[in-house]
Give the backbone structure.
Amino acid sequence: MSIRNLCILGSTGSIGVSTLDVVRRHPEKFSIHSLSAHTNVEKLYEQCCEFNPAIVVMVDEDSAKKLKTRLKDANLTNILVKFGEKALSDIAQDNDIDTVMAAIVGASGLIPTLSAVKKSKRVLLANKEALVTSGQIFIDAVKESGAELLPIDSEHNAIFQSLPTTAQQTIGACQLDDNGVSKILLTGSGGPFRTKAIKELDDVTPDQACAHPNWDMGRKISVDSATMMNKGLEFIEAKWLFNVEPEDIQVVLHPQSTIHSMVQYKDGSVLAQMGNPDMRTPIAHALAFPERIEAGVDSLDFFNTPSFDFEQPDYERYPNLKLAIRACKEGQGACTALNASNEIAVDAFLNNQIKFTDIFKINETSVNKFVSERVANIDEVLLLDKIARVHAQMIVDNMMDEQHQNEDKVM
Ligand code: NDP
Ligand code: MG
């Protein structure tokens, strides 16, 4: 394998840091050309010192200025510092790179990820929201450019690994029926509140929601895992990546997260990918594909592995999962609006502005309002995303007003 030149979008996040850990283990295979962050100057500075990239982008201008000063003080003036969203797309399209890790959180990752796709890069897709919010448009861009799309999300990476080569080579357009596949089994742990009394979910705190039993992740996806909106977004992601109908995807709760998802074949075989829950495994798989490289992850110890349990998801506990499956069946308008609304609602919950259970109320209102919107191109996706955010923020503001009024009455 010749050396791969990498751009990491979102290098300071959980996936970004895990990617750099795999890269660190294989300096002869990977070289870091560019890194990006939003505002985390300190972490990006540390990464610059270790990996000496050619270019770094901070979306926030003030943060970029601070980073530039830090690098100058450390005599690292060879590293070019840029800021702003356009600079993200520029590094993702640079002729000097062949591989892009798309690890920005949320729909902010859409345009830079699509930029990489359009330039036919190998795109390692962690940023599921990019695909959820644009669906067919994203997949069409992959087909048109011939970009190599590899899933990083552990479930989709597991499904990819369990599919035959012909399906792997046609991501976004696979004919699973022709490959003998009867069902995609999407596993999920059920998050930190799987056994909590449903009536207590009103009072859970952001820290409790972010304390995932098996995975160590960024705060947005951690809350999504607690509501199981994450599984809902993954349901939509699976539809697009593997070209399957919603009826052929089944969510299976598997609290131990040892099996990362499965493919069921017509002859009764079920192929699963297993391992310890550590994102360095799918990252290493996709970085080196089709080779296998060491990822720093311990092998499974079957004699000390807890038993495998499986359950049906309970939609009363996880109404966001049911809502996302509905949106997937309804169409792109519902999915784009749901994703936007969920980002606003999760952010408000993390800022202690609304209750955990309010996330669903906001998301449901959003899907109902925008379900018949049609989006035919990226500009229309961005517009609907914007409108749905404004709408969701309005509901958050109303909820906060109501809460203040209730507090005033009590006083
Ligand atoms: P984090 O919150 O840990 O990191 C997010 C990264 O994106 C950071 O580098 C952050 O920069 C950057 N960022 C945040 N907002 C913006 C913005 N508006 N514009 C540009 N960059 C921005 O997230 P995760 O690493 O957990 O998740 C990243 C993506 O991967 C998500 O889409 C998630 O769903 C997906 N994923 C994550 C998994 C995990 O285990 N963490 C597993 C499977 C999928 P800064 O640090 O400066 O804020
Ligand atoms: Mg996942």
User: Anything to note?
Assistant: Residues 153-155, 234 surround magnesium ion (ligand 2) (CB under 6 Å). The mean pLDDT is 97.
